[in-house]
Amino acid sequence: MSPKTAQIRLVSSHPEVYEPCDDSFALVDALLADRTNILDHCPRLCLEVGCGSGYVIASLALMLGQELPGVYYFATDINPHALRVTRETLDAHAVDAELMCMDIASGLEKRLAGMVDVMVVNPPYVPTPDYEVGREGIASAWAGGENGRSVIDRILPVADRLLSDKGWLYMVTLTTNDPSQICLLMRKKGYASRIVVQRSTEEESLHIIKFWRDSDIQLDTKEILTTNKSVPARVKDSLVSQFSQLSFWRGKLIRSQRRRVRTAAEDHSIQITAFMSCICLIKSQSSKKRIVIDISSGVGKDRVTENPEPIFLSGKSTWSPRH
């Protein structure tokens, strides 16, 4: 049986709370894709920053609940309406989490420092004027300031302080957020990274990135700091290529889809031409035969009949000539 996630029909809502959308679904899909690793990881404490409707934290609790019943779940949001909606969503799914109204995790940095094993964040990443960042209500869910990075850049050091030695961070980013540069910033703190899910819509290209502490990177970082060396070019190239390859394959997919559409249109045109040619041929014949023409294949079959009246069938057209 596939692991459970929160059901949309049971997710509560409020006019001032961000509802589950493509980014929420992509984040939950990333957690599902990495679920086996998370279970092997045996987290004791999971935290969502910016819980909104509660869809993500409820899904995480559901997908881990049966195998890991002793996990503690925490969720924060700056919007008090979001906390009420999240509580209703959790109750509807019979799961629980401790909810706190705060900016990012300002009240938890001492209490949970170095204790969070799984942290999930769908931050405000939409590029907006800086004055829109942190506004009350639903705008706080998407307003990300210049390049959509104002809140993201504040979350990264908080995550570094909260995550345990084995802690994992899953974060939603947009192409315009420059995710490769985000990965470089985290690498300087000793974190490796990889893209778990990449999803493109008509409006945006999303990357769900997983970060974790890497001892080899931490050693490299210490060496860089002590020798004042810059990040090796091979590291930058590796990170940049990870995202450029996604753009390359996305382009190939779009071009492939366009070719299929053109091919289908050409095939349809050929079928219509074949159908019309058959009609012209039938009209020129002198026998009283009913000609059955399969429109989907353009193939005509003769059947002798005494009834010359036209008959129309679903998916096929039969027509008999008059003289």
Characterize the structure shown:
It is a single chain. This protein has 323 residues and is α/β, with parallel strands linked by helices. It has two domains: 8-231, Vaccinia Virus protein VP39 (Rossmann fold); 256-319. The chain contains eight helices and eleven strands. It has helices at residues 22-33, 35-41, 55-65, 80-92, 150-162, 179-188, 215-227, 233-284, and strands at residues 45-49, 72-77, 98-101, 116-121, 163-174, 191-200, 205-213, 289-294, 299-304, 311-313, 316-319. The strands form two sheets. A seven-stranded mixed beta sheet has the order 3-2-1-4-5-7-6, sandwiched between helices. A four-stranded antiparallel beta sheet has the order 9-8-11-10, covered by helices on one side. Helix 6 packs antiparallel against helix 8 (233-284). The radius of gyration is 29 Å and the shape is globular. It comes from Populus tomentosa (Chinese white poplar). Keywords: Methyltransferase, Nucleus, S-adenosyl-L-methionine, Transferase. One of its GO terms (molecular function) is nucleic acid binding. InterPro entries: DNA_methylase_N6_adenine_CS, Euk-Arch_PrmC-MTase, Small_mtfrase_dom. Belongs to the eukaryotic/archaeal PrmC-related family.
